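Please check these two lines:
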Amino acid sequence: MNAPVLLERVDRVAVVTLNRPEARNALSAALLVDLFEILEREAASPEVGAIVLTGKGTAFCAGADLKESADEMEAADFWAQRRRVTQSQRIHLMLPGCPCR
């Protein structure tokens, strides 16, 4: 299985790529966890001056992975749904204040 998020550093730029082109880079639970961890680490690194967020394939990001979300709803997995929403919110709140230098 491919990593849902890729990281490449070019000089002081961290290029973070959503890597689910078959799903138009929809935000799955695994992608959200990896994305948050990578963004948090790279934003805190003194070796990174900028972060570029991009998507592999023809789309940047289709939004939430509705198939995975529907599966969770069908299974009545409230906690999985809550984890996904919380992780998404953490990313959205982090991005504007990203302390890259």
